[in-house]
Amino acid sequence: MEWPKELLELFEDPLFDGVRPKAKAPTADDRLVAKLEEVTKWVEEHDGKLPEKTGGLKEKLLEASLVALRKQATDGLREYDRLHLLD
């Protein structure tokens, strides 16, 4: 689509310098992937150790997240599981 010249000039106005499109809200799948990435990062930082219920608060939360992710695992989510944590 070709934009009219007047409209393009309007967008170049300094008044609109800080105007940006509204950010897209994350989907449920995006949140699952983000949580899997958070668990993966923790496992990597702890030399392959999986989070356990007996650890600190953060570790307990990640263990609960991993249990939930395993129950909800889909093929789409497994694409992001580079450490095979969902198996």
Gist of the model:
It contains 4 helices and no strands.
Labels describing this entry:
87 residues, mainly alpha, 4 helices, 52% helix, 0% strand, elongated
Describe this structure in words.
With 87 residues, the chain is mainly alpha-helical. It is 52% helix and 0% strand. The chain has four helices and no strands. It has helices at residues 5-11, 28-45, 57-72, 75-78. The longest helix is centred in the middle third of the chain and has 18 residues, at 28-45. It is elongated, with a radius of gyration of 21 Å. 7% of the residues are buried. The model has no long low-confidence stretch (mean pLDDT 91).
Topology:
Layout: H1 5-11, H2 28-45, H3 57-72, H4 75-78
Helix pairs in contact: 2-3
N-to-C order of helices and strands: HHHH
Q: Residue ranges: pLDDT <50 for 5 or more in a row?
A: none
The averaged pLDDT comes out at 91
- Supply the number of helical segments: 4
Give the biggest beta sheet.
Answer: none
| Coarse structural class | mainly alpha
What's the oligomerization state?
Answer: single chain
Rg (C-alpha, Å): 21 Å
Label the overall shape: elongated
Number of strands: 0
Helical content (DSSP H or I, runs of 4+): 40-55%
Q: Estimate the strand proportion.
A: under 5%
User: What is the terminal separation in angstroms?
Assistant: 47 Å
